[in-house]
Amino acid sequence: xxxxxxxxxxxxxxxxxxxxxxxxxxxxxxxxxxxxxxxxxxxxxxxxxxxxxxxxxxxxxxxxxxxxxxxxxxxxxxxxxxxxxxxxxxxxxxxxxxxxxxxxxxxxxxxxxxxxxxxxxxxxxxxxxxxxxxxxxxxxxxxxxxxxxxxxxxxxxxxxxxxxxxxxxxxxxxxxxxxxxxxxxxxxxxxxxxxxxxxxxxxxxxxxxxxxxxxxxxxxxxxxxxxxxxxxxxxxxxxxxxxxxxxxxxxxxxx
Length: 255
Hints:
single chain, mainly alpha, about 0% strand, disordered N terminus
C-alpha cells in the first residue's frame, strides 16, 4: 500500500509540474509548415548566428543551476505539500486499489504516524537530488543551447531574430530574457498550479475508463506460459539470465 501511494504521489507531482513548461519557445508545437521547415538542420550562417545571440539572452550558461538551486526544489516542496493534503482514497484510487474501505484521511495525516519526519525527509531528499543533478545538467547544457539555437532558427527568420535581440539588448528586454525560463516556476505561478492536482484526482477515474475503452480492441498482454520456446529463449537473453533461471523465476511468481 505505501509503495502504491508513493507512486501515485510522484505521478501527480510530475503531472502538476509538466504544464509549467508549456510556454517555453523550444517546446512550443510548431505549425505544419514550420515542422516541415525544421525537419532538416538550419544551416544559414546569419540565421544561426542571430539565433545563438537569442539563446545567449534567454538561456545563458548556468540557467540549469539557477533553476535547480532555489527554484525547482521549492516548486517540488509546494507540489508535494498539495498532494499530501489530498485524501488517501483519491491517491490510492490512481493505481486501481479498492478504496471502498478507506476513510477520508490525508496522506500527510497517515505519514505523521508512520514517519513524523516525513516532510523534512522529503525536503532533504529533494535538495540533495537537485544539488547532485546540477553538475550533470551543466554537462548537457551546451547541447541544450545548440538545440535551442536550431529551434529558434527554425521558428523565426533572421529579421525576426534581429528584432528579438534588439529588444533583449534593452534594459527591460535583458531583465525579461534573463528570467524567461524561470518565471513559469515562480512561487506565484506554482501557487496557482497547485489547483491542478485535485482536479487531476477528480478526473482520473473517468480518464482511466476512457483509456480502457480506447484500448479495448487490443489483445490482452501475454503471460509467460503463452510464449513460444524461441520467445522464452530471446527473453532470457534480453534479461541476461539462463533459460532455466527464467523458468524457475516465473514458476515462483505463479505461486
